[in-house]
Amino acid sequence: MAENPQDNKRDRSLQPLSKLLPYISRYKAQVILAIFFLLLAAVTTLTLPMAVRRVIDHGFSDSNPELVNSYFTVLILIGLVLAVASSCRYYFVIWLGERIVADLRKDVFDNVTRLSATFFDTARSGEIVSRLTADTTQIKSAVGATASLALRNTLLGIGAVTMMIYTSPWLSMFVVGAIPLIILPIIMFGRRVRKRSRQAQDTLAEATAYASESIGAVSTMQSYTNERNVRSGFSKAVDFAFDAARLAIKTRAFLTGFAIFLILSSVVAVLWVGANNVLNGTMSPGTLSQFLLYAVFAAGSFGALSEVWGELSQAAGSAERLVELLNTQSEIVAPEKPTPLPENVKGEMAFENVEFRYPTREEYAALEDFSLTIKPGETVAIVGPSGAGKSTVFSMLLRFYDPQSGSVKLDDVPLTELDPETLRDQFAVVPQESVIFASTVAENIAYGRNNVDRETVINAAKAANAHDFVSNLPEGYDTQLGERGVTLSGGQRQRLAIARAILRDAPVLLLDEATSALDAESEKLVQDALDRLMHGRTTIIIAHRLATILKADRIIVMDKGRIMEEGTHKSLIAKKGIYAGLAKLQFDAA
User: Fold this and answer.
1) Distance in angstroms (rounded) separating the CA atoms of residues 152 and 300
2) What is the DSSP letter of 341?
3) How far is CA 490 from the centre of its chain?
4) Measured between alpha carbons, how far is residue 490 from residues 493, 495, 515, 524 in Å?
5) Are residues 371 and 485 in the same domain?
6) Is residue 342 part of a domain?
7) How many domains does the chain have?
8) C-alpha atoms less than 13 angstroms from C-alpha of 347 in its C-beta half-sphere
9) Sheet containing 367-374: which strands, arranged edge to edge?
């Protein structure tokens, strides 16, 4: 893939980290306190060499014990101030890192939950989770400890260089001359470190996504004895991530070694020249000691920047990935002034000459010249072969996608004029594969409803024929169901999904063949619950088993995104068309 020039521009800097400034600005008081204690610690550190000089030049030479004692008392006080300042700096800086990352995680997750189905058609959930965890952890380190060290070393380095020039301009040339040799490689290699860090983070996210997908389908994996291939695939992904990280580490290691060599070389040069000056009497031992300490401070600070820069470069890669996710815009948005729905929604729906193609399959029309009107309180079943467009009808109604042409309406209001959340509040959905969350039975039934009392939850469970089996669970409605409700049978999961739909009490009900995978006993219990749920509501049923829709007011037969036939079960049988053929296959087989 060719590189984008804009990407190259970003790779040469820590620009993505600037996106964190709005988060930092929320906590001005903590930032001010962190900077204050950072400055206090730096200034206190810079006073130490001056105190040491006075001890050597005056305390020892004058042979005055009281003077020596007073100097060492001052050194202890300086150490106390330095300890308090460093402790407070650490607290406020780490607090800022934790707080900013918490805010960033919330904002990214909030944005992800608002993204349209188009985004999730290609995104991998494991990679998103990796960005929310691994990348934010990297940023937490950068905003907290790493940024603090960068500021501390910068201030200490500049202060030490200033004091070196003040102490001995001649000796300063040896250390100051080495600074560009330390800084320039850091800047030059910073781009490479960040690029390789980004590659390492991307490949690690892919490995996480692969692991998440495999663990989510562990029963299928084991059933097909595919563990060896899955382990091999994950191992290769992890090793690839390691190789990418190793290249970044190698670059950082070279920078660190190079900086240490230059630091030691400059310190040795200072010692050699300074020692000769002391022997010649042109410099006092205390002045040399003071200068040497400042030189160590300066060289150590600028040398440490090589490692700090590498960590900031890694954080910039993480920030870039998170900002991409944070800046991703949903294709389904609420209008600036949404049209309000009537207080009592009737549940009339209309498709008018709708054409829709999925973004990932634009060559294929999921719906083509599709027109359908459903009256309030009517029960309409949609049948047809796989790929006919049945599920797309549901996606259009819930406004997971917008049609490329034509319109979809609810109570004569185009869906594009409604707030998506307001629109979806009017629907209760019972999917073919019920989604059960890793929480209690009561929380699963009340999913999507706030402040629901226990009695209401129990009544919904009773209406869904779920109360009896829930009562027999170890902790009843407080039983933890585990991820995806794997401890429950298909019929039990389906009845909980129906209880959830009953509690929602929406005017429109969408059923995606809710009994197709159940045994006879479970099907009867679920069908009885569905009959109660459907009463008084506009209902659309996606049906594969025709026996479940014999009582529907209308049956729509679809194929290739179009309506091919329409009528009741009896009238469609009489037509001897597509529906009659499907019925003959199913009922004769039965």
Assistant:
1) 11
2) P
3) 31
4) 5, 9, 9, 13
5) yes
6) no
7) 2
8) 22
9) 367-374, 349-356, 405-410, 413-414
How is residue 33 written in tokens?
């306190």
Q: Where are the alpha helices (H) located in 177-226, listed in sequence order?
A: 179-216, 218-223
Nearest to 30 by CA among 98, 82, 78, 76: 98
pTM of the shown model: 0.69
The CATH code of the domain that includes 185 is 1.20.1560.10
The Cα 297–Cα 162 span in angstroms is 11
DSSP calls for 483-523: GGGTTS-HHHHHHHHHHHHHHHT-SEEEEE-TTTT--HHHH
Q: At residue 1, does pLDDT exceed 60? A: no
Same domain, 310 and 388: no
To 5 degrees, how large is the angle CA 387–CA 390–CA 392? 90
CA distance 362 to 364: 5
Distance CA 557, CA 127 (A): 39
> Are the C-beta atoms of residues 401 and 575 closer than 8 Å to each other?
no
pLDDT tens-digit readout, 224-267: 677 777 778 778 777 877 777 777 777 777 777 777 777 777 77
Helix (H, G, I), strand (E, B) or coil at 428: strand
> Which strand (E) or helix (H) includes residue 539?
strand 538-542
Q: Give the residue numbers spanning the domain of 37.
A: 14-327
Pull the structure tokens for residue 558.
């679809």
- Report whether pLDDT(282) > 80: no
Asked whether residue 481 is domain-assigned, the answer is yes
CA distances from 340 to 70, 337, 410, 416, 507 (A): 79, 9, 11, 12, 16
Whether residue 446 sits in one domain with residue 553? yes
Using the 3D structure, point to which of 266, 294, 327 is the last residue of a domain: 327
CB 12 within 8 A of CB 191: yes
